[in-house]
Amino acid sequence: MGIKKKNTKNPPVLSHEFVIQNHADIVSCVAMVFLLGLILPWESQSETAVNHFHHGIKDLATVFFYMLVAIILHAIIQEYVLDKINRKMHFSKTKHSKFNESGQLGVFYLFSFGWGTSILLNEHFLSNPVNLWEGYPHLLMPFQMKFFYICQLGYWLHALPELYFQKTKKEDIPRQLVYISLYLVHIAGAYVLNMNRLGLVLLVLHYFVELVFHISRLVYFSNESRQTGFTVWAVLFVLGRLLTLSLSVLTVGFGLATSEQQGFDMAAGNFNVLLVRITVLAAICLSQAFMMWKFINFQLRRWREQRQTLTLKKKQAPAKSKSKKEKTNGVNGVTSNGADSPRVKKEKSS
């Protein structure tokens, strides 16, 4: 009998399977072109040290480069960390995808939260909230803040091709597109409208709440009896929404509204007019309302599942006790159909 050989045939070059399997290597080659451009010597136009930066059209190339970096890092974390854990834990397909999602986002939220918090502390935005609107427009940014926004935009842009690389299910794609779009719109809006200080504070606050959720989900996958983290996350989620709305109304509705720098001037980066302020507040309020609606649905679904589990346990408990009684009756002399047990029959015959 012949031994069946394992099919090790590589997929055709530039086919869908080939691109998916080797996307990290392909993206690395593209990123090397950018790095080569940085290595080549260029004539310096200015010798003065620059400490603050503003946004511009050239940021698009930088964001694209860091989008490629994010794709490479995503593949490294997936292959060398998450896939190894998945093989040990033997998750189902549903848990497998959710574990990968929480693993990737957990690393990103942890890194972004730590980085954003260090910027807030160094720039003293937390000690004096008036800095969130005082001196608007905040056209110039320190290097760390500008780099933070560039990396944020690059990461959330990388999530779009990852839907293809990770073979995301069709029914999950609309949900993914919605929250990716929300991140891109809000981050880009704060960056372009020079509301970078408020955007940074709100991002750090939001990332902390999301970090707690994904850590709780990872702990739950390791042991389903550990659900305390979800309760902590639920409380922080509601508080996070309230703080987000409060800071937004305080900064945009009161701080900028009473600022001396009123008017619309694109060259100066000033967008402090009533229409822009109403649009910003409406976008923030609608996104927070949408998140609360999703949160309430999530909690209701959890409560239904817990109630169904408790109902099943209650139904199973009487059935088990009934079977134990039947077994006891059978041993004592009566079987389940009313006849004498073999032991009683033997005693009667004797």
TrEMBL record:
Q: Does the keyword Protein transport apply?
A: yes
Q: Where is the composition biased (Basic residues)?
A: 312-325
Alphabetical list of InterPro entries matching this protein? TLC-dom, Translocation_assoc_membrane
Q: Which PROSITE patterns match?
A: TLC
- Tell me where in this chain the TLC domain is found: 97-306
Which UniProt keywords are present, listed alphabetically? Endoplasmic reticulum, Membrane, Protein transport, Translocation, Transmembrane, Transmembrane helix, Transport
Span-the-membrane segments of this chain are 20-40, 60-82, 103-121, 177-194, 200-220, 232-254, 274-296
**Name of the protein this chain belongs to:** Translocation associated membrane protein 1
Q: What organism does the record attribute this protein to?
A: Gadus morhua (Atlantic cod)
